[in-house]
Amino acid sequence: MSRTSRRDFLRGIGGAALALPWLESIGAPVKTTQVAKRMAHFYVPIGVVRRGFFPGEAEDIIPKGNLGTVMKSLGKQDPNYSVTKLDRLTPTMQPLAAFKDQINLITGMDRTFQQGTDVHAQCASCYLSSAPPYTIKGTAWPLDRTLDHLVADVVGQKTPFPTLEFSCNSHQDNKESIYFDNISWYGTGHVAPSLRDPRKMYHRLFSTREIEKYRDVTDLVLEDARSLKRDLGYEDGQKFAEYFDSIRAIETQMDRLEKMKGELAKVTFDEPPEAYLPRGEYIRLMGDLMLVALQTGLTNVTTFMVGPERWDTPYKFEGLFDKPKSHHQMSHNQTKMIDDLLKVDRFHMEQYVYLLEKMAVMKEADGTSLLDNTLFTYGSGLGDGSTHQYNDLPIIVAGGGASTKSGQHINMPEGTPLANLWLTQARMMGVDTKRFADSTAEIGAMKTG
Fold this sequence. Notes:
By secondary structure, the chain is an alpha/beta fold. It has helices at 50-53, 71-74, 119-125, 147-155, 198-205, 217-229, 234-264, 279-295, 327-331, 334-361, 419-428; strands at 9-11, 17-19, 38-43, 82-85, 103-110, 164-167, 185-187, 190-191, 301-305, 374-379, 395-399, 408-417. The protein is globular and about 65 Å long.
């Protein structure tokens, strides 16, 4: 039987194309197989409740007002650089317990801010940019080419999509500009627009010319799949079946959500019906699509926004509240709604952990997991949503494999640029660069060598 690379496609009737994960039976021998490095960013809007996320702040008084850089003098982080074992997890981080030895908590990192423009717009759009203030012409904030595209220039040359941008913003009210709902930019003023609709993302990944006639793409390739399966060993056969089951599950979820949207559209209310879809199910569906794209080699670089900045339209956080609520509005009433906000923070962390769990069992050609070969970062462009604090950001880095030290709390000196982390990740991904944005040095504690 002829050898087939992991990026080959099964092609069925109607022009359907479906990418395959790596299968030992049809792949190149392991000794010649080079597993790709990946990078993914899981962005959380509007910051976190500090006393629930950051170690040592559980009893701190909740500050009031738009403090910005004033928080530098109020923070209680150790001003010195320190690396300690991550042995205790705060309430918001507790869902990460099973991955405690595979993550790094990084505190003390500051995002570049340019005075005179909206904090929320900057914290999303400039999160992966971090250009020095007032250095970029044609923009009111420090927005330049973002880290994901710099990395994709190196690791995205042979993938169908150099980068993929996911957003879990189902709002259609267009209240805010593109700067509130995109963290990926080709360059100043040139957004890499995130896709919000699971069906559109699915079509982008797994295209077909007859989607109206054949909605289920997997049906179009089953004949070829059955033929291929006869040539697979037992373990690959099981992996193959699991892969197709996951694709079918994604389609079933999309069909169910679309049906729900149709029913909700018949109800009269001011907010768009999409805001009332089960929040966790929607996020996990988009996450499943992202993982399939990474697993199959459709891309090696992704960004994933769990929600937009500052939108006031309420969401239905299933299992948390008895009615939809606005994350942004809650954040500005933190003293009265802290319990609800802590639930939202933990909810977002649970979605991140859901993806970690799936990545940990997705096997690669060399026996490692997708998580082992992916730098998967959880973070936000605000340290605290209620005060618009843009320093001391909540950052967690998972995965990275043998080149990454993990199980640590890395506390950086006050004022350390967030771009230092992006410089570190860029170099870990193979980018040969002396500097990224306003970086000053690598974070050496993250690297084994």
